[in-house]
Amino acid sequence: MFAALACPPPTEIPPMFPSALAVVGCLGGQQLSGWIQRGLHRRHDDRARGVSPALGPWLGCTWLLLGLRLASTPATLGALLLLSVPLLALAAIDADVHRLPDALTLPLYPLSLVVLTGASLLDDRLTAMGWSLAGCALGVSVFLAFALLTPRAALGLGDVKLAGVLGLIAGLGGPNALLLAVWLASALGGAQAVHALRHGAPAHTPIAFGPALILGTYAAIVVVGSANLPY
Fold it and tell me: Are 61 and 22 within 8 A, CB to CB?
């Protein structure tokens, strides 16, 4: 599946463009890491687990792959680069305190709708927005049902709210990207749970599912690529 990453981009792009994106993303991720390490998101009763020092490389790698795969849809590329920054902040915060603050998650709904709709207009691919809205509704409804029916699962309402935003993003790639995003997020979340159990954690130890959701969504868009996005 990930062999698709090796496919050449659908249009000719300057050879240095993806590398430049990687450098800017890496520097931006390091700045974001410094801001999060200030701990403004923490409450007095939080058990802080720390902020990963790899936020810079993570964002740089994400921007590199997006630049390679979405060259034919520059407005969509710009929208996904923009949204990746607050989503990375949410992933880091969730990993640190196992909470997805509404102050960051909820504003992503209007922001995502505005930038993704604008990108779809500029790239002349409004059909993708239909799948995007469907992905949002599907993400919220499925994750809400799962959270309510399995109260002891490592899934909270913060994950439900985040799933709607990520459904908007994954929907840009149509049904294939939506299904792949769910599969990848589930696989990554399951791997986290297995790792925790193998290191002696109790069976119902909560895990931070936000990073898996975010990584799975962006990986799905990278794997599907711009050539398969619905127009």
Answer: yes
Whether the model pTM is above 0.85: yes
Q: Where are the domains of the chain?
A: 16-37+52-228
Sequence-distant (≥ 6) Cβ neighbours of residue 114 within 8 angstroms: none
218 vs 85: CA distance, rounded Å: 12
* Surface-to-core class of residue 184, CB atoms within 10 Å of its CB (0-12 exposed, 13-18 middle, 19+ buried): buried
User: Mean pLDDT, to the nearest integer, of 134-161?
Assistant: 84
Cα dihedral across residues 145, 148, 152, 157: positive or negative: positive
Q: Give the chain's radius of gyration (CA, Å).
A: 17
Which of residues 227 and 17 earns the better pLDDT score? 17
For residue 200, give both structure tokens.
């002696």
**Tens digits of residue pLDDT in 53-81:** 889 999 999 999 999 989 888 999 999 99
Burial of 119 (0-12, 13-18, 19+ CB in 10 A): buried
